[in-house]
Amino acid sequence: MANASSFDLEEDSSILSSSTKHRLVLKPLTLKEANNLVSLLHRHHKPVVGHRYSLGAYFNRECVGAAIVGRPVARLTDQYTTAEVTRLVTNGHPNACSFLYSACARVAKEMGFTKIQTFILAEEPGTSLKAVGWERESMSKGGDWNSTTHKNRRTDQPQGPKVRWGRKLNS
């Protein structure tokens, strides 16, 4: 798909009531749809291979952002209790990032996860995450994941330090 407008909602007027015409609306996305937005709009990351679910933020029938939630990337993090936002992208629409982070947490909680997390670059402020109640948890050293036993891992994405943000969901 060549542009974000190809993700517009159907012309069915029952989808958007008059009270929702001027606010963000949440819709599920396929991984392909979400990855297309990542390809178009993300500043430094490539599309992902898999996901648990993907969500889109719509404004006036236009998809203005997407979030992809998957298994935790770090192999020692429990994949059965923790969900991870692996990509989040918007076209700059106001409040779309915080809208999507909040929605990801609500969906993960309903699915029974006890925690949701994401990693952002150290130079990014995390304003949207802080606004919706996520907490800064730790900072990584950065670098690639290649080792003597695991070679040929991706190195075409940012290798610098990253900050882990998280939110507790269910007890």
List keywords for this structure.
171 residues, single chain, alpha+beta, 18% helix, disordered N terminus, seven-stranded mixed beta sheet
Detailed description of the structure:
This protein is α+β, with helices and mostly antiparallel strands and 171 residues long. The chain has a single domain, classed as Aminopeptidase, CATH 3.40.630. It contains 3 helices and 7 strands; from the N terminus they run βαβββαβαββ. Strands 1-2-3-4-5-7-6 form a 7-stranded mixed sheet, with helices on both faces. Strand 4, helix 2 and strand 5 form a beta-alpha-beta unit. The N terminus is likely disordered.
CATH architecture tag: 3-Layer(aba) Sandwich
Largest sheet: 7 strands, mixed
What is the number of strand segments? 7
User: If you average the pLDDT, what whole number results?
Assistant: 82
Beta-strand share of residues: 25-35%
Task: Summarize it.
The longest helix has 15 residues, at 96-110.
What is the element layout, followed by pairings?
Elements: E1 25-29, H1 31-41, E2 53-59, E3 62-70, E4 82-90, H2 96-110, E5 115-121, H3 127-131, E6 135-139, E7 162-168
Parallel strand pairs: 4-5
Antiparallel strand pairs: 1-2, 2-3, 3-4, 5-7, 6-7
